[in-house]
Amino acid sequence: MITNMKHIKNKLEAKGVKPTYQRLCVLKYLEKNMNHPTAEMIYENIAKKIPTMSKTTIYNTLNLFLENGLIHAVTITGTEVRYDINTFSHHHFLCRKCGKIVDIEVKCPFCDGEITQINGSKIEEIHGYFKGICKKCREKNNKVER
Ligand SMILES: [Zn+2]
Ligand SMILES: [Zn+2]
Asked: For 102, 109, 113, 122, which has the most beta carbons within 10 A of its beta carbon?
């Protein structure tokens, strides 16, 4: 527990972000919950343990993390921002049925760093969004049909 917090503190300090208690809590939550939560989900869960945590603080903290490259914003649903602690380039799959967003590994020359520019423009962030029905939901469907 203590070592866990220390590693999170180091992560903040490495980016020049002052490690306040609130910031440590939000980053720790994101590390433990890699399901690409919304700000609302983060707020609800943290407020259970720390009732003094306000929604504004959560939003400000997330924006600060985004600016400093500690997290990435995933906008796959088009209606909400989901937050991702995994800042390495990777793609996402959204299940239309259960709403789950998962990381997917596909062979990608952009993610692999083989292509770093397009027409002279330097690529800094890569997002590939795939949508459909996940394996679990497909299996559930098949059972109902039979
Ligand atoms: Zn699903
Ligand atoms: Zn992700």
From this structure: 102
Shared domain for 66 and 93, answered yes or no, is no
| Nearest ligand to the C-alpha atom of residue 138 | 1
How far is it, in rounded angstroms, from Cα 60 to Cα 57? 5
d(CA 131, CA 76): 8
User: Is residue 78 in a domain?
Assistant: no
Please give the distance, rounded to the nearest whole angstrom, from the Cα atom of residue 85 to the centre of ligand 2.
Answer: 7
Q: Which ligand is nearest to the CA of 137?
A: 1
- Domain membership flag for residue 45: yes
How many domains does the chain fold into?
2
- For residues 97 and 64, membership in a common domain is answered with no
Digit-coded pLDDT (tens) for 97-131:
999 999 998 999 999 999 999 999 999 888 999 99
The per-residue pLDDT for range 32-77, each reduced to its tens digit, is: 999 999 999 999 999 999 999 999 999 999 999 999 999 999 999 9
